[in-house]
Amino acid sequence: MDVGDIVGEYVGELSEYDAVVPGQPPVAVKQNSGYTLLMNAKSKAKKFVYIDALRCGSITRFLSHSCTPNAAFVEFQTGADVKVLVRMLVDVKAGAQITVNYGDETWFTCMCDQCWSASANDSLQDDRVTAVNN
């Protein structure tokens, strides 16, 4: 796939939520099920909108997380309709894994290639410090 290509649409059940802290500026708290996506667009009632692809959705709900993704979720609006598409950020060869960044607030410890390498280097550094101190 080439940069700019559309992988597919992120679809699922739509849910609306009010601001979660009354009296404070509207801030949405993402309640991850593993398949929820908070949209930037708000509903006609000015509520936060989530797409929940847990029980239904397209193949895009199975994309893995990476801190250095090769694709991204992008909102496109046509009139009153808003769609979330997955668009390629870089060229990838056939058979390559397509990844997106789930955002800063994940419900898991990231083990993407970048974080795994950093974790392995930290572990190696810890081992070296332990060896020097012993």
Automatic annotation (TrEMBL):
PANTHER family the record matches: SET DOMAIN PROTEINS
Ranges for domain SET: 1-103
GO biological process, one term: methylation
The organism of origin for this protein: Phytophthora megakarya
Descriptive protein name: SET domain-containing protein
SMART domains cross-referenced by the UniProt entry: SET
GO cellular component: chromosome; nucleus
InterPro entries listed in its UniProt record: SET2_Histone-Lys_MeTrsfase, SET_dom, SET_dom_sf
Cellular localization per UniProt: Chromosome; Nucleus
Recorded GO MF terms: methyltransferase activity
Keyword Transferase: yes
Keyword annotations: Chromosome, Methyltransferase, Nucleus, S-adenosyl-L-methionine, Transferase
